[in-house]
Design brief:
mainly alpha, 2 strands, globular
């Protein structure tokens, strides 16, 4: 097989991958802060956050293994999973009663069948559209990655090693590693994974502030006339 020399990525790829560990540590520290906030009280949203953090750090560990083994197809699929975690945790900020929402999820109700405070069902695409004004890259990346979660034309294109129009021939690359992608593709996917994790981290911090400062949050809501 045509394995890359030494099976090592370039320095810039490794730098982005090392950022995964920094974010994992940040998430674990935030989790400790959350659990000690407001006298250590535990609310349904805390349970939601614990599950989301566990999923996020496990996904990050799997993502790194996939990049290290040059598996772009699966790395892109699992990137979509990390975005999914960020999207669904964000949903607690756009429902009328976050704790009741979490209890409905714990009882098995699908998030995409639950409505937000504007009466809209919170499908993944809806959540993406809500966040896209703040994260312009999200909509495009989400759309492209959906083609990796479901069997699609992306998998056909990824199996082509080379197409020669002149000779009208195609060379297929049916192997478990993806060596045709340039370094920039690996850098981009790692940076995108980190950016997706940052969305999640931001909203974890938002929940910690809300939990630790209920009086402040209540005054802000009253000032904004949020019911």
């Amino acid at each position: 097989m045509n394995y890359p020399k030494n099976m090592n990525h370039g320095e810039n790829v490794l730098k982005s991958l090392n950022e995964l560990d920094n974010r994992k540590n940040e998430l674990l520290n935030l989790l400790r802060e959350m659990l000690s906030a407001y006298g250590g009280a535990i609310y349904p949203v805390d349970l939601f956050a614990i599950a989301a953090v566990k999923r996020a750090i496990s996904t990050a560990a799997g993502f790194r293994l996939l990049v290290d083994s040059w598996n772009m197809i699966c790395a892109r699929t699992i990137l979509r999973t990390q975005i999914d975690t960020a999207l669904r945790f964000y949903s607690i900020f756009i429902v009328k009663k976050p704790h009741d929402f979490v209890l409905r999820v714990l009882r098995g109700q699908q998030i995409n069948q639950i409505r937000d405070k504007d009466g809209k069902k919170m499908s993944d695409r809806y959540l993406v559209n809500k966040l896209t004004p703040e994260y312009p890259w999200l909509s495009v990346v989400y759309g492209n990655l959906s083609g990796y979660v479901h069997f699609s034309e992306h998998h056909l294109f990824n199996s082509v090693e080379e197409a020669n129009d002149k000779s009208r021939t195609i060379t297929w690359a049916i192997k478990e590693i993806d060596t045709k992608f340039p370094e920039i593709s690996w850098i981009e996917i790692a940076e995108c994974f980190n950016a997706s994790t940052d969305i999640f981290i931001k909203h974890i911090k938002g929940w910690i502030f809300t939990k630790a400062n209920p009086d402040v949050v209540a005054k802000i809501k009253e000032k904004l006339r949020i019911k």
